[in-house]
Amino acid sequence: MSPLVQGIVTIALGVGGSIAYFYLSNLFLDKVLFPARGENISRNINRANTIRPWLFLGPTALLLAIYLFYPVVGSFVRSLYNRDGDLFIGFDNYTTFFASDGFQTAFMNNALWALVVPALSTFLGLVIAQLTDQLKWGNIAKSIIFMPMAISFVGASLIWKFVYANDPDIGLINAIRGSFGLESMDPLQVPFWNNLFLMVILIWVQTGFAMVILSAALRGIPDETIEAAIIDGANPFQVFFKIQIPQITTTIVVVWTTITILVLKVFDIVYAMTGGNFDTQILPSYMMQFMFRDDGRATAIAVVIMLIVSPVMIQNVRQARREMR
Amino acid sequence: MDNIAGKKSALTWATRLTVFALVVIWLIPTTGLLVSSFRDRDQISATGWWLSPFSVEQGLRGRTTIEGVIKEGDTYISRGSLFDDEEILKSVGDTRPPISAFGTTGRDPGKYPSGELADIGKGNKLVVNADGTYEFFSSKAPGSTGQRVYVIASMPPDFSFENYITVLTADKMDVAFINTLTVTIPTTIIPILMAAFAAYALAWMDFKGRGLLLGAVVAALVVPLQLALVPALQLHNAVGIGQSFLGIWLAHSAFGQPLAVYLLRNYMIGLPKDIIESARVDGATDFQVFVRIVLPLSFPALASFAIFQFLWTWNDLLVAKVFLPSADEAKVMTVKIADDLLGSRGGDWGILATAAFVSIAVPLLVFFTLQRYLVRGLLSGSVK
After folding, report:
1. Does the complex come out with an ipTM higher than 0.90?
2. Nearest C-alpha neighbor of A55 from the set A34, A77, A70, A84
3. Is the CB of B364 less than 8 angstroms away from the CB of A147?
């Protein structure tokens, strides 16, 4: 059976199965298990209503448990074992890593990514949001800058190969260098700077995201505050920095952290552009080197990534619970 | 006042120019890819895509004819047109590009300007004119093949769908395209339904542990996927799913749940309470309230999530690499491009560009037609 046919069958089974599950389980609950009639009618209704939320939540809770919560424990446990998973070695995978050059490079690069990409994306997004809001064709400009969001990281990497290629007839950068009489070079092999060139790709993708959200936040600022400032003689820069930005700091923080989290997970760009060579390795791509070869080490890196992300996670959960009340 | 007005217009112009410059910078890389995907592969390596509307100086090679050689004194003279040569004819087709230079070695194919009678050594002389006609004076009788001639011709721009045809037929990219669809469509549709029920429960049903569950969903939003890979794959192997489409459908459906539940719950809680309460008073069960009232009203949020999930699964490389078998038959486009094309055919820019464009065309289409919902989803997802 071809995968496509299989896919169509799956859609039918999945959608049909989901509907059938929800419908039949509710029916079973109301008609068979705790019927809303007879002598125990009120007790039955109450019982049915205690169970019903869990019928609704069932499939999601199951998937979350298997694919997101069990793995937190599973990965940690696996990381305490050796390559084949048959020998408990405690924290050896971690200590080996912390001492190895490859891991240290990946860690430092990752730190650099986590600083530079969110900062520049948010900054550019904010500036573009502010500038385009004043233009008639601002929406078209926004659309174009937002567009890379739809492109895969692999696609984006390929797109940027046409900028970075070490051939003045393919790569834009070397063509420009050539027109100044400079020799061709491979930007992705220049130590340290190659990391920044790779980051540019992610910034190119993420600026649109920052722009869309910050632009909405900027528009949400009450006009009176801005008008008052203008009447008081503030110039556009003062209005922007002293009136508008302070009012959207929360949104800026949200955007910043969202992009930071993303940066800590993206492996595609490094994988496709350099394969981690020339000292451009970051933790997610470093992990993929061990995936399928040494699950013990691969999971150890995953746990390290998890630890780096966890402060944000705790903060988010706190925030969400506060909003619930 | 004049002063202020003047300042303002200067600032407006600065704004316009800055935005325009940024838009151009943002567009340039993608334009390069798009233009290159339509160019002839030899032209791609001959000039940059930014020069693609202009003709390209391209090297061609052929041989002089050995038929109709005339002997005058000690020299054998052959005359003809290079455009009658089969090898050259193959690369130029119907065009007769002007020839700017010629040579007799591959190392220096444009050694002599066209029209110049060149001494090419061993007592041989050759002249190639701009229109392709040549005269070859040799001291020896012609052998089985003619003299090797290289020419620099300025070929007109050559745009075609040839790369697309190659990519879509020869490289198993068609299989990859279908595989991507096979992964994407079920994993866009199925998780929505589950998440919608869960979101309804979290928004409109009262039960113990609701806060805890909501916290868990928010936490799951941030859990790095990397953590799930090894344990989930082990689990798949243990229950016999292994690396398969079924496995990736399950995995993607699960990884999409946190965002789906979060988005839908935020939306559903904003629905008017009166409608839901009055339906309940009228005796509607939760199931009926959900199907008849909440689900239709939540359409914008459902659409937003569907777009997110579609883009994410279509563009995903990580999950596909881990949960699908690495055989050619099961590769999705991102894996195909990243592992096969970038690796083994790193130099074939035409194929690379085309493959990349094929893979981003569908998401771009979705993006431009449904941008409204995407933006709405983003805003409800990250800003409160």
Report:
1. no
2. A34
3. yes
